[in-house]
Amino acid sequence: MFQRACACSSVILLTEWDGFVPGLRELRARRREREIAVLFAVFDEWIARLIAERRISPGGSDLLDRLIAARDPETGRGLGDREVRDQFVTIFIAGHETTAVALVWTWYLLAVHPQIEARLHAELDASPDAPPAYARQVIEEAMRLLPPVPRIPLRQAQADDVICGVRIPKGALVCVAPWVVHRHRTLWADPERFDPDRFAGERPARYAYLPFGAGPRVCIGASLAVTEAVIVLCEIARRYRLKLLNPGEVGMRPRLTLRPMGSIGMELVARGS
Ligand code: HEM
């Protein structure tokens, strides 16, 4: 796969090499579909059983019950089993690892920036009932420096275009990478520095901060994710510090989410002990 980066817009144009070999892309896609079906078989069996049970005894209020009970206001039509399963999987997968990864890197960054960790603890101790403004800034800044989704899934250009002087032919695969945008020197001052105060005042410029994507496909769980992450961070930070056990060995493994390479060893140390 060849990559070309546009220096000013951080748009990356990708050309799939397998497009040059007739039929190869389709073969790879079919093989991948078979692999995915095998990986999902146990889960699909479990969710099918769960959906069947809930259809027999409706009336609960969790996400699955609500998906099953949902009706199109115009047609009165509900979701079929496959649609319920797909919605459930999307929300579960899109909302689970992303927030977890955001918290992992937040704790890592706090561990290597003890003065910021101390300020977070001081804020929480001073005003336990106030909205945790600094904790929110910490989460937002952690998602800037180490975006949980470092590269937004590819888009295919529907027409020829030119972005910042880079020609984008119709059909090309285009990628916007929050990792690159968030470290762009024309958008952020001293971008490599972890500084939650960036989020103390005005919001960042439009499209300069994209942890949740943008436009019609923007993350539907963004508010939930930030609220959830801030609550978890505060609850833990009120009681514990997270001490890094393997500094120097922490690496990244960017996939759809920015996973750590291997594990990050951290020890919960009770505060005040
Ligand atoms: C820190 C946590 C999260 C991050 C960084 C994140 C990031 C993203 C990004 C970048 C996209 C856009 C993908 C694209 O444009 O192709 C997206 C879409 C989506 N997210 Fe999140 N997300 C997070 C949490 C959540 C949560 C908690 C939920 C649900 C409970 C959720 C559900 C979704 C769904 C359903 C979509 C697809 C929206 C669509 O295509 O219309 N996400 N997310």
Write up this protein.
This protein has 273 residues and is an alpha+beta fold. Strands 1-2-6-3 form a 4-stranded antiparallel β-sheet. The protein has helices at 24-56, 63-69, 81-112, 114-126, 133-145, 178-181, 222-239, and strands at 2-5, 11-15, 155-156, 161-163, 166-168, 173-176, 240-244, 251-254, 258-261, 266-270. A hairpin with a 3-residue loop joins strand 8 and strand 9. It has one domain: Cytochrome P450 (Cytochrome p450, Orthogonal Bundle), CATH 1.10.630.10. Helix 3 crosses helix 5 (133-145) and helix 5 (133-145) packs across helix 7 (222-239). The model is unreliable at 1-9 (pLDDT under 50).
